[in-house]
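Lab notebook page, bench 4
Experiment: in silico fold of construct C2
Operator: M.H.
Input chain length: 379 residues
Purpose: comparison with the prior construct
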Amino acid sequence: MRAVNAVHARYAVSLLFFLCGVVFTSWASRIPEFKEQFHLNEAELGGVLFMLPMGSLIALPFAGWAVDRVGSRRMGPLSLVLYAVALYALSLSPTVFTLSAALFAFGFIGNTVNIAINTHGLDVQHLMNKPILASFHALWSVGALCGALLGGWTLRNNYSTGAHYLMVLIPLTLLSVASYFFMLRIDDEQHESKKLFALPDKALMLIGVICLCSTLCEGAMADWSALYYQSVLENVTVKSTTGFTAYAFTMSIGRFTGDKLIHWMGYRKVLMMDALLIAGGMGLALASSLPVLVIIGFALVGYGVSTVIPIAYMVAGRSKTMRPSVALAAVSTVGFTGFLIGPPVIGFIAHEIGLRSALALVVVLAIGVFALSWRVKQV
């Protein structure tokens, strides 16, 4: 296969990652609207929102099987279009029950997209013979930013949720269909010797646990970092997302630069560096009462977590016992539980001993990543 095809496929997969980010934050930008529409209190909203990660988690075994059977070239664009359709369906929900069901479907399809595009990204990476997966994840972050900006624009201009989601659905469908013609035509026989279903081996379990530690950190930062930053400000009446913004910004930068670091240092050394940045950054943020040092600490954490998931997927894609799509699903199943249990665990600990002490769990998890990284095969 000519190298130019790999370059075209890289652009196509990059587009799918970007569009996936747009879809997700298009939903997130309208959460207050759904809360108001259905007159939900915080507890009721939390119950509804829980349906999304539940759908995502349940999708993982199906996603690995479906991507393997249908092929990532077909499943990537197809599932992304269905993802946008599910997004639009959210705007049509007449009751809380139908909204919850639609959100479950949204999460289910979303993780199918995740497995499909990461699997194809690994195929492109293999053909190009250099690490590129982190750059795909960086473009998801760029898409997420664009989706958030689009959501803000539609709200300022009083567009309905349905009109907003149609603005996403129609161009996304056209772009997804177009991307199909530029993706790789993978020979189905290249993975013929690998089992479709198999228990994860020790190597996959190891990278899955590393992934779990990272997602626990990400979940803690996503849900609790803004509240912690608020607590260190002298004027408690001022609301600010500066700390979380610094975290999100350096995560994006880390993913854009991560491929070169991985190529230069190898998986193991980058994971160890990531762990030190997470532990050091959170340690700095927790040890200081100066907002500027908290911001710097959060920025270090963002850069640290940026490449852990891409590396986990790269290692999973090299499995000798499972096909790439199934291996990705296996690792994601272990890792994704971090997003489910991380925030409530931090909340429970914070209720008992305070938020500052609870967030020290991030430091402990980073130390765990460092210790486990010693056992990752150096590539």
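Observations: Residues 3-182 form a domain with the Growth Hormone; Chain: A; fold (CATH 1.20.1250.20). DSSP finds 16 helices and no strands in the chain.
Next step: discuss at group meeting.
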